C-alpha cells in the first residue's frame, strides 16, 4: 500500500513536468531517472512517520514523500555523471548520461530538483506556514552546509571525516524524510531528527558493506567503488565484524528514538523491519 502511494505521487509529479510541452528527450530522461525505482526507502519513511502521527492530510504527506524521492533521484543522476562516479548502470539499467548523453543528464538532475519544490509548492500553497517549514526541511537536507550536495563536495577535500561525510552524503536525506513526515502531519518535526539520523547512518554502513561484499549484478550498480575512489568506508575502517556490530546498534537506536505518537509501536515494528532488511545476506558468516 505504501509503495502504491509513493508510485502514484511520483506519477502525478512527473505528469506535470513531462507534459506535451516538455522536450520529448527530457521528458523521457525524467521518467528513466525515476522509474522503475529502487526500494523507495526514503519516501516510505515519510509515509510511515506521518501515519504514526495520524496522517491528517494525506495529500500533504504524498507531496512530501514525492519531493524527498525526487531529490534522491536527482542526486543519483548527478552522482553517476563522468565527473563524479562515471557509473554505467543504476538500478540494473543504463544510467541517464549513458542512455541520453551527459548534457541531458545534467538537465534531468536539475529538473528533478526543481520538480521537488514545485510538488511541495502545489500541495502546501494553502498553508504558508507549513509550506515554509517543508521548503526549509527539503533545502537543508539537500544543500549546504550539511545536505547531500555537501556530502558529495566532501569528496573534493584532501581529508574527509567519515562521520561528517556520511551524515551529509546519506544521512541528511533520511533525516529530511522523518522531519518531512512529521511536518506533513502537522507535528513539530525536530524531535524526529534522531530517528532519521540513525536510519541514515545504518543505511550508509549497510551500503558500505554491500559495496565490499556484493557484486555489480546483485547491487544493480558498480561494486567496490569506495576502494577504487579512496572514499571513507565503515567496513574498511571498522572491519566487517565491527561494521556489522555498528549496523546492529544503529538499528536498535533507530527503534528506540521514535518520539511519542499515536502509532509508536506500529512504527517501531516498521523501522525494525526496514533496518533489518538492510543487512546483506553475506554478513551471516561474520561475527559482530
Question: Domains counted in the coordinates: how many?
Answer: 1
CATH architecture: Orthogonal Bundle
**So, the CATH homologous superfamily?**
Farnesyl Diphosphate Synthase
- Give the quaternary arrangement of the chains: single chain
Produce a short descriptive summary.
This protein has 288 residues and is mainly α.
Structure description:
The chain is an all-alpha fold and 288 residues long. The chain has one domain: Farnesyl Diphosphate Synthase, CATH 1.10.600.10. Helix content is 69%, strand content 1%. The chain contains 14 helices and two strands; from the N terminus they run ααααββαααααααααα. Strands 1-2 form a two-stranded antiparallel ribbon. A hairpin with a 2-residue loop joins β1 and β2. The model has no long low-confidence stretch (mean pLDDT 90).
SSE topology:
Elements: H1 2-17, H2 24-34, H3 41-52, H4 58-79, E1 89-90, E2 93-94, H5 96-100, H6 102-124, H7 128-142, H8 148-153, H9 162-184, H10 193-213, H11 216-219, H12 225-229, H13 234-256, H14 264-277
Antiparallel strand pairs: 1-2
Helix pairs in contact: 1-4, 2-6, 3-4, 3-9, 3-14, 4-6, 4-9, 6-7, 7-9, 9-10, 10-13, 13-14
Question: What labels would you give this structure?
Answer:
288 residues; mainly alpha; Farnesyl Diphosphate Synthase; two-stranded antiparallel ribbon; 2 strands; globular
